[in-house]
Amino acid sequence: MSGWPPSLRPGHPADRLVLLAAVIGVAAAGMGFVAGMRGTEAYVGRLRVSGGPTPPVASDSMPRYGDMGQRARGPNSDLYVNGLTGLVPPTPDPFAPLVQTEAERDALIEARRERRAYDGAPPTIPHAIDERSTGSCRSCHDQGVRIAGKTAPRIPHEPFTNCTQCHVPRRTDSVPQNTFSGVASPGAGTRAWPGAPPTIPHSTRMRGECASCHGAGGLLGIRTPHPYRESCTQCHVTQGDPAR
Amino acid sequence: MDRRDFLMASALAAATAAAKGVAAPEPPSIEGVRWAKAPCRFCGTGCHVQVGTKGGKVVAIAGDPKAEVNKGLLCVKGYHVGLALYGKDRLTTPLLRKNGKLTPISWDEAIQKVVERIQLDPKGFAIYGSGQWTIPEGYAANKLVKAALRNNQIDPNARLCMASAVTGFLATYGVDEPAGCYDDLDRCDVLVLWGNNPAEMHPVLFSRVIDRRSRGEKVTIIDIGTRRTRSTGHADHYLEMKPHGDVAIANGILHLLVQRGTYDKEFVERHTAFRAPANPPTLEGAPISFDEFKRRIAEYTPEKVSRLSGISEQDLRLLADLFGNKKLRITSLWCMGMNQHTLGTAINCLVHGVHLFSGHFGRPGDAPTSLTGQPSACGTAREVGTLCHALPGGGVVTNPEHRQHAEAIWNLAAGSVNPKPGYHTVELWKRFSKPKSQGGDIHTIWSMVTNPGQSLPNRNALFDPSRKDPSKFLIVSDVYPTETVRAADLVLPSALWVEKNGMFGNSERRTQQWFKMVPPPGQARDDCWQLLAVARALHEAGFAGTRDKDGQYLFRIVKDGKEVPVWDWRHYYDVNVDEQLFEEYRKFSRAKHKDLAPYQEYVKARGLRWPVVQQANGTWRETRFRFAEFDDPYVAKGKGFDFYHSTSKDGRAQIWFHPYAPPPEVPDAEYPLWLCTGRVLEHWHTGSLTRRIPQLHGAMPAAYVEVHPEDAQRLGVSQGERVVVESRRGKLVVPVWINGRGAPPVGTLFIPFFDETMLVNRVTLEAHDPFSKQPDYKKCAARLRKATAQELTG
Amino acid sequence: MPVSALVLTLSPDPAEVLCRLSSRSNLHLGELIGDRLPITLESPDVRSAAREIEALAEESGVSHVDLIGAYYEEDL
Questions:
Q1: Cβ contact, residue pair A180, B52, below 8 Å
Q2: Which of B326, B336, B345 lies closest to B282, judged by CA?
Q3: pTM of structure
Q4: B468 is catalytic
Q5: What is the ipTM of this complex?
Q6: E-assigned strands of B580-672?
Q7: Is any Cβ of chain B less than 8 angstroms from the Cβ of C53?
Q8: What string of pLDDT tens digits covers the 244 residues of chain A?
Q9: Cβ atoms B229, B200 nearer than 8 A
Q10: Looking at beta carbons, which residues of chain B come within 8 Å of C37?
Q11: Taking CB atoms and an 8 Å limit, are C71 and A193 in contact across chains?
Q12: CA-nearest residue of chain A to B78?
């Protein structure tokens, strides 16, 4: 990029032009300044209620930064209505009575089954994803969120970095016929006696974070009635190899 | 019983149950499901899976936590590998083409038909095999061809995938396969990807590296490629290069190491020698002095390399900075980007050379790591030697000592093994596609466990013509109706994966074993049985080659002193044929220090990395790092390193000088775009298995062409529009994907090859590397245009 | 009156410790599985249950005690 900026050599024809431009510019600035001053004066006039320094006053045209979340205004008011703040995972009252039905449980098991080739398979993703990077997966699934009535569950296994290595979306329902019949969800655990802690009927491989499904923010139908007890495996044990 | 008694009884029951549970640990206990180990059927990573079967069917898969390779983790293909057995259109009866239509016949008829074709002219009968053959299958086929038919006409599809890696190893170390292993991934500080997309292609290995970051470790990843991929998202630096830029870049690094003096002087002095291409060119090349090497490398200045490769001088210096730093441990990964390359041998040698020259070799984490694509390209194609020039254990038919060794093990008369190599893959299919009058001296190909109709380059020339010639006969052993099956003359339905016993050898020299777990459907039978049945039928027809020098049947399998009639399917599993063949094959493995352990050791282990050497206390110890004194038992004390198969016969590895040369076909006015082809995470190869798995097909239902937005705008095509991509050889209609998964630069297209309804290999060219004969699927000249109405409907 | 369900891991050759344990009135022994013995322990209250379990762990011939569950009549 040669020849930039134009040089100001004496006698150079560009000199005159530059000087003229400068004069015009200053004049314009001056006029703008004056015009602006007038506006400012009016504004200042409104605020000035007494002599001396004034405390900041909430005004309709200038909301506080912290209030902006609560205010539905302007073209992005939808954003505030659904509420980015609403994405904060809820911390429900852990002692609130839990109401869930068998029907809800059955529906949940069926919904889970649809996304898994067999019990223990990595579920397919029911929504569109970023093809190129996996950072966005963690933004919802790291803690788990409820958004627009749906739950994005917290990752139930240790956090791996390459999410799409195992989880792929379902882009089409037109899929080939395959007679594979995967092992089903094993159903409820067994209780040694009524009231005993049920055993864990499923493998805990890749399902080490119990709270992901069973916790207070978990899936309705299999939520635990005692989310305030955090050491799940103290009472609930798996069948078979404890190291699996 | 009162309440208290009930309480007591229940408590005791719980305690008893717990006592039982704790006492006998077992795999995930699901009622009625039996679990057993197997390596995954798919890629060369060689993850171990636990296969859950019930009622004669696979019902679940779990990652095997005891496996060192994957430690309980799999990828989406691995998690769904069990479903590969259950597509609705499994082949279940032998079929013969009569009057243009494939009609069911009996196995006896089918075997007789194969024998007929051999007897027609044994010299013109070839077997086209696969890196997905199990080791015993490959061994049986190789023995049939090299010991019985003696025409050396056997070549695997691995010719299309790993051949350049093999020649690179041979030219550098004198012996095939990586010196290091996956342990290097756990230790490296820098990972350099050379035209490689492991996030999708070897996902479990890639996770092994990037998950180290979540444990707080720092791993710098450098992605050198011709387009952005999913791997790029995890990389620290992306170096976009032009096709063949890799050759310039490697030379550029060598140049800077010389100029700055930051090469490893001691390692170079003690353990390496220099080579350059000979005239006429040979794989061994010609020795040159270090001074001569420096003289030749002098022209690869950063300025020139930047011009040739497209990467910036700054980025080249970054690479040289890293390689010049001995404190860092650097692993290079590569696969098809460097192998499917008309300078494939050269670039393989150069990357090995960069590591050797800079001393980034032989310490855990310092490794030039060639990744293998197929589950047993190493274990079967390369190690068993199912190539037109090779013998088991790394031998070659042109070497009289190797021939003698084979004749001794096979008990053949001296001079039985044919010293003339057969035809390599591209040549083989060319001769199959040409009429006899024009030199087409191959009349029958028996293709097993592969899909050449979809995977051969320039299909119009290499595959289609033979289908119109009634004198050419194509036999196909496969599991589903693929492109190749549909064009075949004789179809043999085969058992798949855990429907048979098997062994694979993965990318890190790890041989792995599994047992049959479920029966194959209908009349599908093991590929190995098919080969042994043909051998027996030949023998009964009096074919001389099936008798050894004492007149004994060459494929005699004996148990408790009696011969077992394994050619009779009802008796095939009376004995473990795998074990019998493997124990014989093992005898070849010591010759080049690729020692294999007895079969039973592999039954116990999740694979063992060769050379597996027996210790004084009787146990078998695998070798993780070859040629290095600290781990390789064949390196004498005090040597530090010993490249005991050195081509310069002095224990040294060869650092090659290879000049840059441009690609054979570059974009021009008529075909102004680069076309690159490759794979996606969800699909394995030609999709014959994965496109029948709902979760995988559903995730990636169809092929596409990746186009840069600027190119799309200029050509006037929009997202999803079906367009024509064509070259001098052929064309296909394919939908456009702008801003898709990969991001090619302006002027480049990318099309994956898994979709049999969109055969990109009509467009690719068969130009190949002069030594490895491996064709280049990664770059040719193409153009993209709107499709006509007829092209869209036709 | 809590009932504790326990699994005791016994040292090899457990004949002597089995004899000793079976004579205790507040213990009810199950069948020996390998080196593991399921038992139930009756105690007047939670604190004494805890003390008794600790004491069991100190017994010669007992190498380990696993608490499987604690059962309370009131909970039913």
A1: no
A2: B345
A3: 0.81
A4: no
A5: 0.88
A6: 608-609, 613-614, 620-621, 653-656
A7: no
A8: 333 233 334 444 555 666 665 566 565 555 555 544 443 333 333 333 333 343 444 444 565 676 665 555 555 555 445 555 556 555 666 677 788 888 988 998 998 999 999 999 999 998 888 888 888 898 888 888 777 667 788 899 988 889 999 999 988 888 899 999 999 888 888 887 777 888 888 888 888 888 888 987 778 888 888 887 878 888 888 766 433 3
A9: yes
A10: 19
A11: yes
A12: A166
